């Protein structure tokens, strides 16, 4: 019996970000946050972005993000140093160190890990932050 071949199914592709372009966006975020450029960092987030960070309810959308960065964030100033980044399609993982000053006047230095999900437009759809600090 002859075999029948099926016509090829149309391929569907979701455009994945270029690794260098994704890393440029990630670096732009940390530069903006360290410079206190709230408008610049908000431009990197999708309008309905979700940010989860220990000690805070999830922040959803530009309004929540603006309120956090302009008033709720306990960090007064500081600098992030990225020690490792991994790009896997639309997902980016970052490991680094932060050194700065809290609003209480206390100096802080700690390691952190961030996990981002990028949209096809290279805005951040999600961000999850974790800190390497004793909790219990």
Task: Write the SSE topology.
Blueprint: H1 19-35, H2 38-42, E1 45-52, E2 59-60, H3 61-72, E3 75-88, E4 91-102, E5 107-118, E6 124-132
Parallel strand pairs: 1-6
Antiparallel strand pairs: 1-2, 3-4, 4-5, 5-6
Describe this structure in words.
This protein is α+β, with helices and mostly antiparallel strands and 136 residues long. The chain is 25% helix and 42% strand. The chain has a 6-stranded mixed sheet, covered by helices on one side. It is globular, with a radius of gyration of 19 Å.
Instruction: Work out the radius of gyration.
Output: 19 Å
Query: So how many helices?
Result: 3
Q: What's the SSE pattern? A: HHEEHEEEE
Strand composition percent: 35-45%
Overall geometry comes to: globular
Key features?
136 residues; alpha+beta; six-stranded mixed beta sheet; 3 helices; globular; disordered N terminus
Short description:
The protein is an alpha+beta fold. The protein has 3 helices and 6 strands; from the N terminus they run ααββαββββ.
